[in-house]
Design goal:
Length: 282
Amino acid sequence: MALTKQHRLSFEFFPPKTDVGAKNLQSTRDRLQQLGPDFFSVTYGAGGSTRDNTKTVVLDGLHAGCDIAPHLSFGGDSEASIKQLIDQYAESGVRRIVALRGDLPSGYGDGSRLVHANELVEFIRQHYGDTFHIAVAAYPEIHPEAESYDSDVGFLKNKFSAGANSAITQYFYNADAYEQFMECCAKAGIDHPIYPGVMPITNFSNLKRFSANCGADIPRWLDYRIEALKDDAQGCKEFCSEFVTELCEKLIVLGAPGLHFYTMNQSGPVEAICKNLGIEKI
Ligand code: FAD
């Protein structure tokens, strides 16, 4: 099933740490811009330099004419410094924010209290009214720290009650997880759009390590299939691209309102999947 213009399409970047990374990201962004996304988003790391890197990528994107959303979390910072940052975003023309609790990097400092995402959403609405479209995170396979499935869905509902407009999910490889989750959200009275996050599979060993931390399940059969292709780089690439394309197709059939791609700052894997999904360059 093809993606249509009614489906929202967005691409996520992380802020590069080097000049070469920054140059590569610009060319990735320019290539993906040709697919006509609704917006890009840029992840955020708590702490000074990573925080500024996010702002740099966002402002660059705005200057290049892109709709681009910074991710944001308190991450141990004061309300005043977060407000200063959001002021800068508002003045620069940013109109979307992805509001998160975030995870503190190790060594960030004891005594910092992570501020839940619903509180950040409230803070933004309190100070900026409807200036921003606010997206929050959702977890079809449930957040690793959640006490229960129901409590996690309940906290997602809180984020909407606080004023969030939409949610983007953690990536997952079981379409059933999204279907179940959407049913539970509907039963809990959530009627805001929840966009599946899609992670193309490129570096499988890194992905497995990362997935173990963030609570994304790698199906056992998928692990075996990809392992079996470890000496066939081209075959592996094709298999992964087809597998993720089929996942996207299933999600669209299930009624997903669009797709949010975790690009890992690479255009190739996303372009291949989008092409399979019928998304033409504009
Ligand atoms: P919350 O919604 O606050 O939830 C965190 C946990 O606490 C959950 O277990 C939830 O059940 C529970 N909970 C929620 N609200 C409350 C409450 N009010 N009281 C008590 N418990 C509560 N991380 C980054 O560091 N930078 C990024 O840029 C980034 N981008 C992301 C983008 C997406 C689309 C997603 C899905 C995740 C992203 N993350 C990012 C990871 C995210 O920060 C972590 O998963 C983090 O652990 C939780 O963030 P959250 O906003 O979901 O937190």
